Amino acid sequence: MKYKPHHYQEYATARILDTPYLALLLEMGLGKTVSTLSAIDQLLHDYFDAERVLVIAPLRVADDTWAREVSKWDHLRHLRISKVLGSAEQRRRALRAPADIWIINRENVEWLVSEYGSKWPFDTVIVDEVSSFKNHQSKRFKALRRVRPFIRRLVGLTGTPAPNSLMDLWAPVYLLDQGERLGKTITGFRDRYFTAGARSGHVVYDWKAKKEAEERIYEAIGDIAVSMKAADWLELPERIDRAVPVKLSGEAQALYKKLERDLLLPYADADVVAQTAAVLSNKLLQMASGAVYDEERGVKLIHDAKLDSLEDIIEAAQGKPVMVFYNYKHSLERIQERFPQARILRKGKDGNEDIRAWNNDEIPLLLLHPKSAGHGLNLQESSCQTVVWYDQIWSLEEDQQANARVHRQGQKRRIVVMRLVAEGTMDEEAVAALERKAAGQNELMEAVKARIERVRAS
């Protein structure tokens, strides 16, 4: 296929060429992979400013998306891809294979660094979904940090740079500039931009941004961040978000309130116990969806109210495909039991066949977990117009990435995203938290987006 880049894609490619380290904050559906590959091709074969390129990506993306984009576009088909996946021996063979771009999943970054140490061979590194390196204590961050001095060019790609709070920015930005803008240490970053809030003993677990901290952080990283929002560049069909209230029975409400109050639901075979705030939150979200795990990992049924609501939604879709996101295995099992026509997205080649079948309207009800469907899946070619969140989640990144599987470039139909929200439960808190996080995310995107306004005027 002949590549006819949008103006913003040309700009993104040019910035990668001009900037040794760059955060490319392109929202889902804006074609960041082909924009980046176009830059890689020029760095390798026109500018001779790159020799060995490494792409770090989520597993499914590493296995499929990058190679698929190379084969899709005429100007990229000469690029040689080597997938550093599978067993350790398979990965070592892939590293020895002649290629232009080596692709590895982020879980194996620590292994890759240990393989090479100070003999790190990759002068150019692309981190797809760099926000997954936000935890400065994670092994993947520490490993990449160790070899960062040997990397001449580094590009971080994501549509959600601060999925939970501004605190998430330090580690990804450090990988870009090695601490030049936000400080060499997370402690220094916290001291400069935050004040300690709630704590347990000496451990602070809630940090509050200081006055004007956002503006100062955005200003500090503005020269190495390119922000683009899909709504500014693509004429996507309308997306409607609806919270669908689900009323629980009196019995279900009583059980919910008992666990909330007593942190214990006694049963004859195994109790349901919530010993910490995090466990309680998770248990209450489970109960809001209709079932909860006990101490023996058995499932205690609470209600079928969400199943009934989902049945109404499927009926209203009038035969068109419906996509459903679940977060708990017991939710998946109960949905499959109620709706035998439902299919899940399998792994590997079977998963690729499922994607083809979905896009050809051969699957009436597709059940997806947000962690497995978050990146690199193009599911917008079906006639689906209804996306349902059966279970509610806390992660803004997973929420945005999952919804973007259908509401993205190439979509021609209006999309309705429905969230089944059990009234008077933790569902309401989770949805409200996502809305608050989305507001903060938008502020970050807007702040650095201003730097490319001249593109639209040129």
What does this structure look like?
The protein is of the alpha/beta class and 458 residues long. It has three domains: 7-233 and 442-457, Tandem AAA-ATPase domain (Rossmann fold); 235-248 and 304-423, 3-Layer(aba) Sandwich (Rossmann fold); 249-302, no CATH class. The protein is built from 18 helices and 21 strands. The strands form six sheets. A seven-stranded parallel β-sheet has the order 3-4-2-5-6-1-11, with helices on both faces. A hairpin with a 6-residue loop joins β13 (264-265) and β14 (272-273). α1 packs across α2, α5 (109-116) runs parallel beside α6 and α11 (250-262) runs antiparallel to α12 (277-289). The protein starts with 6 loop residues before the first helix and ends with a helix. The mean pLDDT is 87.
Q: What topology emerges from the helices and strands here?
A:
Blueprint lengths: L6 H12 L2 E6 L5 H14 L7 E5 L1 H14 L8 E4 L3 H9 L4 E5 L3 H8 L7 E5 L10 H9 L5 E5 L12 H8 L8 H8 E3 L2 E2 L2 E2 L2 E3 L3 H9 L3 E4 L1 H4 L5 E8 L3 H13 L1 E2 L6 E2 L3 H13 L1 E3 L5 E3 L3 H12 L5 E4 L3 H10 L3 E3 L3 H12 L5 E4 L17 E4 L6 H8 L11 E8 L3 H24 L3 H5 L1
Parallel strand pairs: 1-6, 1-11, 2-4, 2-5, 3-4, 5-6, 12-21, 17-19, 17-20, 18-19, 20-21
Antiparallel strand pairs: 7-10, 8-9, 13-14, 15-16
Helix pairs in contact: 1-2, 5-6, 11-12
